[in-house]
Amino acid sequence: MTNVTLPGVITRNVAAVLRARVARVQATQTELAAVSGVSQSQLSKILRGTRAIDLDVLDRLCWTLGLDVADVLAEAERDAADLRGRGYPDPIFYRDGGRTIFGGRSMSEGGGTLMAAREDDDDAESEAQQDEP
């Protein structure tokens, strides 16, 4: 038996945005596949949200559909944020004030190297800004 991991919520939301645009422009998958250079089989899986989307493929599909990649990703993220507000799991890695949190733990509690590197980057940036006239 093979373990199959389905794409995450962002991938499914991107697929929904693409499907809506395909319907709006009344394109067939065959037409979209031919113009974008994505195989119809791969395109079908992408539009169903069952296949992860390579960024270059997303770029080609967005260009073909007259969409901006950043807008598609922003809409997908907004929809994901709505899910998070309804009990979707917290992010695994995020910043909380000056602390980096990983899996609910501060990086300084169990992986200070990354936190120290991040703090050094912040300090270097501050120093560079102070040196400028």
Automatic annotation (TrEMBL):
Report if keyword Flavoprotein is assigned: no
Gene3D superfamilies per record: lambda repressor-like DNA-binding domains
Q: Which InterPro entries match?
A: Cro/C1-type_HTH, Lambda_DNA-bd_dom_sf
Q: Where is the composition biased (Acidic residues)?
A: 119-133
* Database matches in SUPFAM superfamilies: lambda repressor-like DNA-binding domains
User: Residue limits of the HTH cro/C1-type domain?
Assistant: 28-72
Disordered: annotated segments: 104-133
**GO MF, one example:** DNA binding
What UniProt keywords are attached to this protein's entry?
DNA-binding
State what protein this is by name. Answer: DNA-binding Xre family transcriptional regulator
